[in-house]
Write a structure and sequence with these properties.
The protein is of the alpha/beta class. 39% of the residues lie in helices and 15% in strands. It is built from eleven helices and eleven strands. The strands form three sheets. The protein has a five-stranded parallel sheet. Strands 3-4-6-5 form a four-stranded mixed sheet, with helices on both faces. 40% of the residues are buried.
Length: 249
């Protein structure tokens, strides 16, 4: 962050030349913290309503820790996705209060906040193997202040399991449907509810599923209206988008 610009901004507020809303608006475009290997967007919370999230895959544990510490200086809740147990151990050495959701592969600096809305996100997974992506979506929604309900292992191979949960589905303001294999769950759910459905294809499946490509194409070609599709295994993106819908209405 450019400290000289910040001092100038504070002085303008103090002198009455700038009011608080205008100062916050200017802060949105302030620079980042440059760590050399990463440029940390410390004002993303002001622009987007949620801080920058650390994507751990491809980063060393020490790099993740440095980014985590930089964000933690300004944010109560720091979130790191696709984190391994080794990354969590490295973070916990510096931040003993950090917690790890092993299923979601997410490290948090604190407990998720109290819900900011009564509108619920319902996360549905086709199989147990899809749970890591489904949990990533659910935890992301909770971190953004949206209550999340989970309905797991209700794929179309035993569709009666899904039908038994119609009331839970109907209670959701946004539904996230997570499925690998042929990805049919999203179309079925889309035909059952009047709410928006966010489909997430997963890389779960045998050879001809092509690591999620078959599910992705099936979801993109869904005949059910009101279905939006995320990229393969992008539970984080689904949880984020569902929260924007719930908090923005």
């Amino acid at each position: 962050m450019d400290r000289n610009k910040l001092r100038q901004l504070l002085q303008e507020v103090k002198d009455g030349e700038l009011d608080i809303p205008a100062a916050l608006e200017r802060l949105k475009s302030f620079p980042y913290d440059d760590l050399g290997f990463a440029k940390i967007d410390t004002h993303r919370h002001l622009r987007r309503g949620f801080p920058e999230v650390i994507f751990c895959q491809g980063k060393t544990p020490s790099q993740v820790v440095d980014i985590f510490q930089t964000l933690r200086r300004n944010e109560h809740l720091v979130m790191a996705t696709r984190a391994t147990a080794d990354v969590f151990d490295a973070i916990r050495m510096k931040h003993p209060g950090a917690r790890y959701n092993e299923s979601a592969r997410i490290v948090l600096s604190a407990e998720p906040p109290t819900a900011r809305t009564e509108k619920r996100v319902v996360v549905v997974s086709a199989g147990t193997s899809d749970m890591p992506i489904a949990e990533e979506a659910a935890v992301t929604a909770e971190c953004m202040g949206c209550p999340a309900d989970r309905i797991y292992d209700v794929g179309v191979a035993g569709i009666h399991r899904l039908l038994d949960n119609r009331e839970k589905l109907a209670a959701g303001n946004v539904i996230i449907a997570v499925a690998g294999m042929e990805g049919a769950l999203a179309s079925v759910v889309g035909g059952m509810v009047e709410r928006p459905v966010i489909a997430v294809p997963t890389s779960v499946g045998y050879g001809a599923s092509f690591e999620g490509l078959a599910a992705l194409l099936a979801m993109l070609n869904s005949c059910a209206p009101g279905v939006a599709v995320m990229n393969i295994d992008n539970g984080f993106g689904a949880g984020y988008f569902a929260s924007i819908i719930n908090l923005g209405e």
